[in-house]
Write a structure and sequence with these properties.
By secondary structure, the chain is α+β, with helices and mostly antiparallel strands. Helix content is about 35%, strand content about 20%. The chain has 22 helices and 23 strands. The longest helix has about 45 residues.
Length: about 625
């Protein structure tokens, strides 16, 4: 082979090699360009698009903003006795971003402290912001605090904080007035757009805690803290103190309230005591009741289940939500309507043979042999059914119902509490509309003595008897008298609110009042058990049938199953001339108003009058 040929061959190989190198360099160059482009785009994305978010995350690795719960306003009674305040409690909390192994941390905690792990995981998912702590358990015991402090190294992201918790100083007393707090639900939070509430906050769920939530709640503060890599607090950088909520002053007398509840020992029912001069609620009882302190730190599933499944419904405020036949208390309305519509006169006589005959049916009087010849006064004193059957039949249902509405029945009283019911006063139009049936005369007979379709609440009857006592003015009941700042500055004072005057002439109202005085003081009066020595009382008893059963009519109360026994009513006011208290008492399945309800009213009025000596309204 010639030398020149060899050199040509070498040169060709080098050319091929050089071209291969160039191709690889091009590929590598493109790869480098693409890689750097991706890096540049990533840096642009992180530094421009996500700069605020990452800056916040970086800052939160060093600094956290922790919420400080506001102290709710205090609640006082009419005598400025403190009845509800707030106390400090230890809460066990956790910041999820500081926890690498959530299951392990929760396992350590649950070995000593009872927590709801599923609820905790759900709350973590539903949080509205990063680094927002969640509460694992509120108001933990001292031994649980010691356990957390002992194992804090093994619990990154877990910390103890102190927050105010509601404190009901009198336990179950007046629980249906006060209500309770509960953790805000997702549905409630969604309905409070742009509010200051967060998941985990407590909010008024019942009673005046709910009605006056915006007044009581205060405004949260915040604490800026420096933390280490595990989220543990190193230093407080800044603190903005929370604002206190306003204080509420109630119209109730807490000592009278305690006494009223004590009078219901072993009984279920309701009591409302009201000042006829201004509409102030002095006491309000609903039995059975509950302890609102058990809601303050988050109610247990077992206790809640027991409450809602209890057949006696302890969460039901019977005073404003219980709807019962008024029984013979309604005879006050029938009497007023009869006088006003001139179907009777005060001296008109109606004979009571023990029954009222309508067509082929006899409507019995409670007294088998009858009362004989009755005028209006004696008919009210002895609660003669036949007298009022006759008056009601002459009136007809629509005239009778018109007066019942005028006395405040069949409508809410508009008391400043949540959930009040309206009861029911039937009319012929109501029955046609609701049942598609015409009204029949026999139903008027039942309505005239407060049976049949008639339903009222204890607060309605308290307001009605108060209006009779004060001369005919229906006032709006209220439980809150004023609102003040924590420094004692007046924010708002509630004034008496006149709703209307009774559509009853004064001479007719005086006739009814005098007869009601006889109910208590006459030897034949059905309300003599409410008699108070040296004090003039006026009132009316009532026995409301729970169920109409022929076979029950002649049986003794103790032989009738408890759930079928009649409800016992008594309404009254005292003193007779210038009353300062009016009372409505209902004892569920108590039997007769004169024996079961009247003594409760008498004892309570006596106590209040003794307590009120030397005091003004």
């Amino acid at each position: 082979m010639a030398k020149g040929d060899f050199q040509v061959k070498i040169t060709g190989q080098e050319r091929n090699f050089s071209e291969a190198i160039k191709g690889r360099i091009l590929v590598f160059t493109i790869f480098v360009i693409i890689s750097f482009s991706i890096l540049i785009l990533r840096l642009w994305y992180l530094q421009v698009v996500r700069s605020d978010e990452l800056r916040s995350m970086a800052e939160n690795n060093r600094m956290r903003v922790l919420p400080l719960k506001a102290y709710r306003g205090k609640i006082f009674d009419r005598n400025e006795n403190e009845i509800i305040n707030s106390r400090p409690s230890f809460n066990l909390s956790l910041t999820p971003e500081d926890v690498k192994d959530m299951d392990r941390v929760l396992s350590v905690i649950s070995s000593k402290i009872e927590i709801d792990r599923e609820k905790i995981k759900r709350e973590i998912k539903e949080r509205s912001a990063q680094f927002q702590p969640i509460t694992l358990k509120r108001d933990i015991h001292w031994d649980e605090v010691a356990f957390v402090e002992e194992h804090i190294i093994d619990l990154p992201g877990v910390f103890l904080d102190i927050e105010p918790i509601r404190n009901y100083l009198y336990g179950e007393t007046a629980s249906h007035i006060f209500g309770y707090l509960g953790e805000i639900t997702k549905i409630q939070l969604d309905g409070l757009k742009n509010s200051e509430y967060r998941l985990g906050d407590f909010i008024g769920q019942y009673g005046i805690e709910k009605r006056y939530e915006s007044i009581l709640k205060g405004k949260r503060g915040s604490k800026y803290v420096e933390v280490d890599a595990t989220g543990r607090e190193l230093n407080v950088l800044k603190r903005i103190e929370p604002d206190f909520g306003f204080n509420l002053y109630l119209t109730i007398d807490v000592e009278l309230q305690k006494e009223a509840e004590g009078l219901f020992q072993g009984k279920n029912g309701a009591l409302v005591a009201i000042d006829p001069r201004n509409g102030n609620i002095l006491a309000m009882v609903s039995k059975p009741s509950f302890d609102p302190n058990l809601f303050a730190g988050g109610i247990s599933k077992i206790y809640w289940s027991n409450l809602v499944s209890d057949v006696y419904k302890p969460l039901h405020n019977r005073a404003i939500q219980g709807q019962y036949p008024p029984g013979s208390v309604f005879k006050i309305v029938t009497a007023a309507a009869g006088l006003e519509e001139d179907v009777i006169t005060p001296s008109a006589i109606i004979d009571c043979p023990g029954y009222f005959k309508l067509g082929k049916k006899n409507y019995r009087c409670w007294k088998k042999g009858g009362h004989g010849r009755m005028d209006l006064r004696n008919a009210l004193i002895q609660s003669c059914d036949v007298f009022f059957y006759t008056v009601g039949f002459r009136l007809g249902i629509d005239r009778l119902s018109r007066y019942a509405f005028g006395f405040g029945l069949g409508n809410t009283t508009d008391i400043d509490m949540e959930g009040e019911k309206s009861g029911l006063i039937p009319t012929s139009e109501w029955k046609e509309r609701m049942r598609g049936e015409p009204w029949i005369p026999g139903e008027t007979i039942s309505a005239s003595i407060g049976q049949g379709f008639d339903l009222v609440t204890p607060i309605q009857l308290a307001n009605m008897i108060a209006a009779i006592g004060n001369g005919g003015t229906i006032l709006k009941p209220r439980v809150v008298s004023k609102i003040e700042t924590t420094e004692g500055n007046l924010v708002r004072e509630m004034k008496p609110d006149v709703q209307r005057k009774l559509a009853v002439r004064q001479e007719n109202l005086d006739i009814i009042k005098e007869a009601l005085h006889g109910v208590v003081h006459d030897l034949r009066g059905t309300g003599r058990a409410s008699h108070i020595p040296n004090i003039e009382v006026a009132g009316k008893t009532g026995t409301a049938q729970v169920i109409k059963m022929k076979e029950m009519e002649d049986r003794r109360d103790e032989d009738i199953p408890f759930e079928f026994r009649d409800h016992a009513w008594f309404v009254a006011f005292a003193p007779f001339e210038n009353p300062i208290i009016a009372v409505s008492v209902l004892v569920e399945h108590g039997g007769h108003g004169g024996t079961a309800a009247a003594p409760i009213a008498g004892k309570l009025m006596k106590s209040y009058m003794e307590r009120s000596k030397g005091k003004t309204s």
